[in-house]
């Protein structure tokens, strides 16, 4: 076994807390991960972890070794990146993450094309509407809609995305169309919310004539999957707050109707988020540049701001 591979597994066990999680991350079985930790402990002559039935926690020796091990991995990654940059032949793996909606429509569908251009880069994609801890989970690039909340990260803005409130004609016929933003609460409208542990969306920020205001809306049910909310809205179950590009086709074809146009939701930025040092890696730069151009092009097409050109099939695929 490679000593460096053992160190990589050790670092991920510390960060993820279990052999199985670290094994999945490094694409080895829990048994192999366990053997690598044991070999590392034999080599160092100390115990690196306190073992319980649920979780591994580093010993004092383990904590000290972790601080140095992280620097070793970062140094090796930076050296490999520098060589790849000089040779113009980027290699290695990239961990990227994105919310389910934009992940399915814009990011995941572009990975095969990215790999065709850079066949020596292995891409690991995780799609989730949950809040992903980029540093703890070793993510290289996160594509997300929102604001940067961690000063240990950097952001490359891609596109400012308009949001809309909308509901189905059936819902509006049954419950009435809100005459103003306050009616969302006063008339107890069913507002469909994206919620998960750590979620911020327990209110909607709307841009009213008096300025931006927060409205603590509510509804009979919520989900941690944004596409589920859209489906519920299409079925007449409530009002959704979504990026315009995600629901443009439904609005154009009358399946959904935009409401409260004079006090729309605050727009949100589509951005690439990454740890400070990662942008030095040419793989990260290439991925961000590739996806930024792709997202701008496809969102523009979905909004009808660009001609269909030769990519009609592609536009249909991302609007589904």
Automatic annotation (TrEMBL):
<comment type="similarity">
    <text>Belongs to the LysR transcriptional regulatory family.</text>
</comment>
<keyword id="KW-0804">Transcription</keyword>
<keyword id="KW-0238">DNA-binding</keyword>
<dbReference type="GO" id="GO:0003700">
    <property type="term" value="F:DNA-binding transcription factor activity"/>
</dbReference>
<dbReference type="InterPro" id="IPR000847">
    <property type="entry name" value="LysR_HTH_N"/>
</dbReference>
<dbReference type="Pfam" id="PF00126">
    <property type="entry name" value="HTH_1"/>
</dbReference>
<protein>
    <submittedName>
        <fullName>DNA-binding transcriptional LysR family regulator</fullName>
    </submittedName>
</protein>
<keyword id="KW-0805">Transcription regulation</keyword>
<dbReference type="InterPro" id="IPR005119">
    <property type="entry name" value="LysR_subst-bd"/>
</dbReference>
<dbReference type="InterPro" id="IPR058163">
    <property type="entry name" value="LysR-type_TF_proteobact-type"/>
</dbReference>
<dbReference type="InterPro" id="IPR036390">
    <property type="entry name" value="WH_DNA-bd_sf"/>
</dbReference>
<dbReference type="Pfam" id="PF03466">
    <property type="entry name" value="LysR_substrate"/>
</dbReference>
<dbReference type="InterPro" id="IPR036388">
    <property type="entry name" value="WH-like_DNA-bd_sf"/>
</dbReference>
<feature type="domain" description="HTH lysR-type">
    <location>
        <begin position="1"/>
        <end position="59"/>
    </location>
</feature>
<dbReference type="GO" id="GO:0003677">
    <property type="term" value="F:DNA binding"/>
</dbReference>
């Amino acid at each position: 076994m490679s000593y460096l591979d053992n160190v990589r597994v050790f670092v991920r066990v510390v960060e993820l807390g279990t052999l199985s999680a670290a094994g999945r991350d490094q694409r080895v079985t829990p048994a192999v991960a366990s053997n690598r930790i044991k070999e590392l402990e034999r080599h160092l002559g100390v115990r690196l972890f306190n073992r319980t039935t649920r979780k591994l926690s580093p010993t004092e020796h383990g904590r000290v070794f972790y601080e140095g091990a992280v620097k070793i991995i970062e140094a090796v990654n930076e050296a490999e990146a520098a060589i790849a940059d000089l040779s113009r032949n980027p290699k290695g793996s990239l961990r990227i993450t994105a919310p389910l909606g934009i992940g399915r429509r814009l990011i995941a569908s572009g990975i095969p094309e990215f790999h065709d251009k850079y066949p020596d880069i292995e891409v690991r994609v995780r799609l989730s509407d949950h809040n992903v801890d980029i540093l703890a989970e070793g993510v290289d690039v996160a594509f997300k809609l929102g604001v940067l909340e961690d000063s240990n990260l950097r952001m490359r803005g891609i596109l400012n995305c308009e949001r809309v409130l909308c509901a189905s004609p059936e819902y509006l016929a049954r419950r009435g169309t809100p005459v103003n933003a306050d009616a969302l609460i006063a008339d107890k409208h069913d507002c469909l919310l994206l919620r998960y542990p750590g979620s911020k969306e327990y209110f909607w920020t709307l841009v009213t004539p008096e300025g931006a205001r927060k409205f603590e809306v509510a509804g009979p049910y919520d989900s941690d999957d944004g596409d589920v909310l859209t489906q519920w809205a299409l079925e007449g179950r409530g009002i959704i707050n979504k990026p315009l590009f995600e629901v443009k086709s439904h609005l154009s074809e009358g399946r959904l109707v935009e409401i409260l146009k004079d006090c729309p939701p605050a727009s949100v930025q589509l951005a690439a988020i990454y740890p400070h040092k990662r942008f030095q890696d040419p793989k990260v730069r290439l991925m961000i540049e590739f996806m930024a151009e792709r997202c701008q092009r496809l969102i523009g097409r979905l909004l009808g701001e660009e001609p269909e050109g030769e990519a009609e099939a592609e536009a249909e695929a991302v609007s589904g």
